[in-house]
Amino acid sequence: MLCSQSFGTIIATILGQNKRLSVMTSMTSFIALVFFCNYAIPIKEFIYPFQLFSEITFQKHLFNGLLIVTYGLGRCGSGQSRVFYDYKIDDNSSGGKSHRDFWFCLMSLLIIFLVLKIIEFVLLITSINVNFEETQNNDQLADENGLQFNRLLLIAWIELTLVRVQTNSKKTKKNIFNQLSGGFDLNTINAVMGPSGAGKTSLLKCLSGQNSQHLTDKSKIYLTSSMKIRTCFISQNIFDHLVTGLTVKQYLIYASKLKNSCFSGKSIDHKVITDKLMDEMLINDISDINVSHCSGGQLKRIVIASELTVYCKPNILFIDEPTSGVDSYSALKIISCLKMLCRRHNMSVITTIHQPNSDLLELFDKVYVLSRSGTNIFSGRPQDIHHFLNANDSSYQQNLHPIEHMLMLASVDHENSCLKKLSQTNNLSTKEGLISRCNVQTIESTKDMFFRSKRFYLSDLWHLTVRNMLCSYVYEWKSICFQIVLYLGLAIGLSTLYNRRMILADGCVDDNIFTYGMNCTETEESLNDESLLKRNLQYHMSFLMGSSFIQIILTTMTFSSKVNIFFNEHRNGWYSTGAYYISKSVIDFLPLLISMLMFSYIINYYDSKRMYFVYLYTLLFVVLCSQSFGHISGIIFSNNQSMMSFTTFFKC
Predict the structure, then answer these.
(1) Considering only CA atoms, which of 178, 148, 150, 149 is closest in space to residue 163?
(2) pLDDT at 73
(3) pLDDT, mean of residues 351-368
(4) Chain-centre distance of CA 475, in angstroms?
(5) N or C terminus: fewer CB in 10 A for the chain?
(6) How far from 630 is each of 13, 175, 570, CA to CA, in Å?
(7) How many domains does the chain have?
(8) Residue 447: is its pLDDT beyond 80?
(9) Helical H segments across 153-261, by residue range
(10) Are 396 and 405 in contact (CB under 8 A)?
């Protein structure tokens, strides 16, 4: 069970964003495990490379261990069971060799389990985008409410070009966007706009340090030299951030406890932080409602509030499509709250947005419009779009709203002469002032300025474990009961189908094992004995394979939907990988332990304490190893549903 659990964990971690692919990966692996378990085909009949590979499959050691404890350990006295001859297992009951072989199988299971856990942990570390870890006043401006805020260039980019290799036979390169230049100031709310496929989200990821490996050498990103940059990235899918099962207030309090654990020297009142943010984000009226029952607009504001519970708030907040999937009133509410946060908390917000209405557009301090060809055709205040189009576009229709006409132009072919003129004019005016400001106010960014992971804190482990226990054991109790019912159903079904008399056959032969099978005539008793032996082996293989299959599939399906929450929370500095890994292992183990305690009791036909604990030990390790395989599949194929399902199938 332990090995199956670890197996499932690894699959789901690799393939977290693609459930079908995770399931197929796990099933694929399961079939491979069955093939090398020594039951279908004795391992010693394989070619030598396959024999070596079988040593790392936990099912083989499990099967051999059960054969030794069932038919060895002195059961045949000075003789030997023919089961060992049939499955090519060396055994000698004298001298304690059976005991040594049995413990060797158990230790092999333990080693394989630990190796799978290490692989799972390493994959979690390598699959994450870690988030990076006060200020001087410059020129003062005032917003419409009379609040003062700093005019300081916070982030800028010059000749930014993102290149992706297309997965076709020729592996051609495609520019997502070309030689973009621009910048955003402190205390401003900014919108990156453009048609679908223009590269809005890709630009946000580049500015937050997530796509740096795909940028060209000439691409430069600059950050202000006046303060340490603290960023936060919120993806479009809010369910990749939200942990269901908690009330809004509980969720925000746990967010505050996790994000502020590194400020141990400061007196932090998590309730005060939560109440203030709920008031600022206009969600205090839903504080006692479960997050799963909130509307789309409320959920987006909850996610934003959770990322701002930290004591030292981020000075750049990247939000991908904060208004998607909500009505115009909710969208207006979200952007209004974000604008107020910019002014109040000395931060800047950079969002992507499709087609805002006029009221929503006026809330932004700056808009940055991308064309479908990956060029920037406007960068400036929303109020200046009309004058820019009047001066540079002869086809501009006065009856259309300026932003509507701008987005229509952004969607045309890249060879359009008007589009080229807009792009060239905008780039000249943008770069002229930007380069001089960059030389004075910024420094060129490095990887270390973006990627700063949070170190391990015991308080993070405690708060994370308590939070996830509430979600798993209280809110998701039906899933745990379903898992237990599946195992009980398998155990009861098998114990009902198979006759208890099968445990009576021992398959013992005389001391000269080489004479076994040489006699052409067999008695009815020996034939019956052989039939019972086969049934007993089928019984053991049925519950071993059945329990492993259940665990791989369950792990792949459940963890693949949660791994993205880990990626986002870790990137935004909630906790370390170690804290998450230990917490998750503890929470996953308890339901499995309960299931296997009952499962081992039901399948134990021998009414022996020794056999009960042998079953319990081996089944726990098999299921946990299978779980790790599922987690690995979930990590690797997190963006590919089909491949995850395919590999899960063959792992079964």
Answers:
(1) 178
(2) 61
(3) 89
(4) 20
(5) C
(6) 8, 35, 21
(7) 2
(8) no
(9) 200-207, 248-259
(10) yes
